[in-house]
Structures are given as structure tokens and as C-alpha cells.
Amino acid sequence: MATRTTTRRDSDRYSLLRALGFAVLVNVVGAAPSIFSSPDSAWFRSLEKPWFYPPSIAFPLVWTALFTLLGVALWLVWRSDSAGRRLALGLFALQMAFNVVWTPAFFALEAPLLALGVILALWGLIVGTVVAFDRVDRRAAALLVPYLAWVTFAAVLNFELWRLNA
């Protein structure tokens, strides 16, 4: 009996480490664009901001939390043997690519309208990913809901930044 308990504990520990690894991976991928572009540029500082623009510290805190939730959701889908797993993983990768592209589109290219197109496509891909994740693991889909809410807010913010500075 002791061997069975030890094996289960080791398996649980290994699963926890894997989930943590997925969370770290998604955070690294999500943060990668900040190496090449930054909201600290003179161009961005000169933009007129809408009244609801959050304090700068909110962005890294929110994105770290969201990317961590995404990593756990990805892990839940990854470990599933559901028939819809492959589609869900593909949609996740595609939406993540659009997420990564938004930062250089907005900050490096200084193109808020282009970035708005990217974020609107991202929003649709997130909705598709939530649906696909729901077919594999309902918990994974639920973990994406805060991300969808934040990207909705970010799209409105992106639109306002474009509108105020066009």
C-alpha cells in the first residue's frame, strides 16, 4: 500500500510540475514581443490616452496572471485524449501567434489601426479556442474567459487610442 501512495504522490507532483511548465512556457512566449517593442517609447508616451486607460503597472500584472491561466488551460487540453484535442491545440497556437503579433504591430510599427485588425482577429480566435477547449475540458475553457474579457477591453482601448490619435 505504501508503494501505491508514493507512486500516486509522485504522479501528482509530476503533473503539478508539468502544469507549471506549461504556465512558464506561455508566459515566456507571451512576453517575448516586449523584447523588441515597448510602451516606453516616445511615440507611445506622446499619444492621447482615453480616460479609462489603466495605470502602466496593470499590464504586466494582468498579462502574467492571464498567461498563467492560459498555460494551465493548455496543459489540461494537452493531457486529454479527447478527439477534439488536436483542433483545440491548433487554435490555441494560432491565437497565441496573433497575441504575439499585436505588440510589434502596435508599438514597433506604431500602427494602431493595423494592431486593431490584429486584435479583432485575435478576439475571434479566442472565441473559437474557448469553444474548442470546452469540447475537450470545460475547466480549460473556463480558464480562458478572463483572457477573452481582457482582450475585449484591450480591443476597445486599442480602438480609442487609434480614434483619439488619428
TrEMBL record:
GO cellular component: membrane
Principal location class: membrane
Domain of life: Archaea
Keyword terms of this UniProt record: Membrane, Transmembrane, Transmembrane helix
Topology with respect to the bilayer: Multi-pass membrane protein
Keyword Membrane carried by entry: yes
Gene3D superfamilies, A to Z: TspO/MBR protein
Membrane spanning stretches: 16-37, 57-78, 87-107, 113-133, 140-159
Keyword Membrane appears in the UniProt entry: yes
Cellular compartments annotated: Membrane
GO-annotated biological processes: tetrapyrrole metabolic process
Family to which this protein belongs: Belongs to the TspO/BZRP family.
Protein name: TspO and MBR like protein
Organism of origin: Haloterrigena turkmenica (strain ATCC 51198 / DSM 5511 / JCM 9101 / NCIMB 13204 / VKM B-1734 / 4k) (Halococcus turkmenicus)
Taxonomy of the source species: Archaea, Methanobacteriati, Methanobacteriota, Stenosarchaea group, Halobacteria
